[in-house]
Amino acid sequence: MRTDDKTAGIQPCFYLAPLEGITTFVFRNAFREMFGGMEKYFTPFIAPTSNHNFKSRAKRDILPDNNKDIHVVPQILTNHAEDFLYTAGRLLEYGYNEINLNLGCPSGTVVSKGRGSGFLAFPEELDRFLYEIFQKTGAPLSIKTRLGREDPGEFPEILKIYNKYPVHELTIHPRVQKDAYRNRPDWDMFERALEWSANPVCYNGDIRTCEDYERFRERFPTVDRIMIGRGLIADPGLVRQIRTGKALMPEERLAFVDKLCEGYEEIMPGEPALFKMKEVWSYLCGSLPEGGKLWKRIKKARTLSEYKNIIHSL
């Protein structure tokens, strides 16, 4: 970050956003060990099952032994209060002291079931749902939301609903569901949300470089909480660079992906670990000058050995 930054007086907290299939405990532990600097790490969403049991993958991800010395916030995806309350209760038994509700996922399969950002299209049902979970959950509840389903103009009414409840933290990704990750975040609506929200607000959306961060801080110097997802997968050293000016070095990137691969191999040997590494590199390659060529080579790798030979030959 530039030393003459006009916003240097306020140093925001940084959170690692939840990315389904990527920001699991393997990623969180490797990231914390190598880079640290994150005040919170949000889990990929937990979708309650019909029998209320955690799926084995979800359970492994939230086990305290897999998240030592990390401030983890588990996220729940549902539109049924009973399912939310049961799952939240189980998470409290594990020792978690904050629960996050996913009202932001734009995935078509999620939205078609009225969950994630699809729930925003049913404000009366959402209000009843929030009333029940805020009445009965014995822990602070935070929310990650989008602006609406179709149009940012939906958000003022949605925000009125949020303002009725003691939301521990309202993370706003200022796009609507139909945008997915296209188009620019709507900073005008985010500015209005900052003014109108009765609850603390966290920003999420398209902070991928130090320049992105500085542009955001120039316009929103009072925002003290920022959540970053894709930007940190592409450049794991981004928050450190924002805070200290020290950019990610090639040898650090290599050490990080090696540590990740090692962690994945411990729990899913062979092809599944290779698939996970390809997911991570699909983001990493986007931040590299010759990333397109490298990505083509990595995509063609059929075994972990072949993959390792490719990245260690760089």
Overview of this protein structure:
The two termini are 29 Å apart. This protein is α/β, with parallel strands linked by helices and 314 residues long. A nine-stranded parallel β-sheet has the order 3-2-1-9-8-7-6-5-4. The chain has 14 helices and nine strands. It has helices spanning 25-34, 56-62, 81-93, 108-111, 123-136, 155-162, 187-196, 210-219, 230-234, 238-244, 250-267, 271-284, 291-300, 304-312; strands at 13-16, 40-42, 72-73, 75-76, 99-103, 141-145, 170-172, 201-204, 225-228. α3 runs parallel beside α5 (123-136), α11 runs antiparallel to α12 and α12 (271-284) runs antiparallel to α13. β4, α3 and β5 form a beta-alpha-beta unit. The model is unreliable at 1-7 (pLDDT under 50).
